[in-house]
Amino acid sequence: MSLRVGVISNLIARSRINRAQKGLFGGKEIGFGNNVSHSNRRTRRTWKPNAQHKKYYSEILGRSVPILLTTYVMRWIDKVGGLDNYILQTKPEKLGQGFAMALRKELLDALAKRDALVQQIQAERSQAENIINVDTASFRPPSATA
């Protein structure tokens, strides 16, 4: 029984791509199969993901990010409305461990920093409005004497 589990785990481990940790592969892995000739001779072959080097602009980070990604992920980035939405909405299992999770953490940190800044600005505005309201409440226009 342990031999069978070892063979299955070996097949699963063999299909993982180390390159996928350096980019966005959307769960795509190396496919295995056979070339079948006219004489029905079978030879083993692999299908590798269609990986491309691209730069995508991140609105949250305010800069372009160079990425290694598959054409599958390119289509998904277009569908969800940009790199930031893809990274934040995709499940961590599909993103993988390396580059994508680091980029996700960077985006979440930038969002948290932006939210803290917005809250600080709102607090300063409300404080300024309170000062203006206090000043206008005590202000009385000069009485008109005829």
List keywords for this structure.
146 residues; alpha+beta; two-stranded antiparallel ribbon; 51% helix; rod-shaped
Structure description:
This protein has helices at residues 2-14, 71-80, 83-89, 92-95, 99-138; strands at 31-36, 42-47, 51-58, 63-70. By secondary structure, the protein is an alpha+beta fold. Strands 1-2 form a two-stranded antiparallel sheet. A hairpin with a 5-residue loop joins strand 1 and strand 2. The longest helix has 40 residues, at 99-138. It starts with a helix and ends in an 8-residue tail after the last helix. The model has no long low-confidence stretch (mean pLDDT 83).
Structural class: alpha+beta
Question: Average pLDDT across residues?
Answer: 83
Helix coverage percent: 40-55%
- How much strand content do the residues show? 15-25%
Question: Unreliable segments (pLDDT under 50, ≥5 consecutive)?
Answer: none
Summarize this, please?
By secondary structure, the protein is α+β, with helices and mostly antiparallel strands.
Question: Secondary-structure map with pairings?
Answer:
Layout: H1 2-14, E1 31-36, E2 42-47, E3 51-58, E4 63-70, H2 71-80, H3 83-89, H4 92-95, H5 99-138
Antiparallel strand pairs: 1-2, 3-4
